[in-house]
Amino acid sequence: MNAPSRILVVFYSRSETTAEVAGRLAAELQGDFERLHEVEFRRRAGPLGFLLSILDVVRERPAHLQPMTHTLSDYDVVLIGTPVWAARASTPVATWLSLHWHQLNTVAFFCTMGKRGSESTLAQMERLARRTPIATCAISAPDIQGDAAVEKVARFVLTIKDALAAREREAAHR
Q1: Higher pLDDT, 31 or 56
Q2: With 50 as the cut, is the pLDDT of residue 15 above it?
Q3: Which is higher by pLDDT, 58 or 106?
Q4: Which of 56, 89, 150, 168 is the most buried (most CB within 10 A)?
C-alpha cells in the first residue's frame, strides 16, 4: 500500500477569513500549511491597505514575498487559497503562482470573497499554475454567515480525498 499523500495548504489572508479556511483544510486533510508573507508586512493593513491591495491587483504589480519555510517537492498535493480582490487572486498568491508553478504537481484551489468574483479568480489561478485543479471551492461572506461554508469545505475535502484515492487505485493497477 502506498504512503498517504503529503498535502500542503498555501494561502494568503489579509483579513483572516482565508486563514481560517486554510487552517480547517489543513486539519481535515492532515496536511501542513504555509501562510504567504510579504516583505512589507504592514502595507496591506487597514482601509488604506485595502485600497493599495486593489490598486496592486488591477495594475498587476508583483508582491515581494518572504521565502517559504516548506519545500514544495516534499508534497504530492498543494492547495492554494486566496481572497478575491477585484475578481482576481490576491497579488501575493498571483505572484507566488507565477514564481512556483513549475514546482507543483497536483493542485486544488480555494478562494474567499465578499459576494462574487470566484469564477474569474479560479480561472486566473489555473492559468498561472498551468494546471487543472483536482478540486475548487469558493466561499462567500454570506456562506460564512450561514452554514454553507462548512458544507462547501466538507465537499471540497471529500473531492480531494476521492481524487487521491482514485490516483492510488490507478497506481496499484500498474
Answers
A1: 31
A2: yes
A3: 106
A4: 89
Write the burial class of residue 42 (CB in 10 Å: 0-12 exposed, 13-18 middle, 19+ buried): exposed
Contact predicate 22/33, CB 8 Å: yes
pLDDT tens, residue by residue, 41-54: 667 777 777 778 77
What amino acid occupies position 163? A
Q: Is the dihedral of CA 119, 159, 156, 93 positive or negative?
A: negative
Which of the four pLDDT bands, split at 50, 70 and 90, describes residue 1? very low
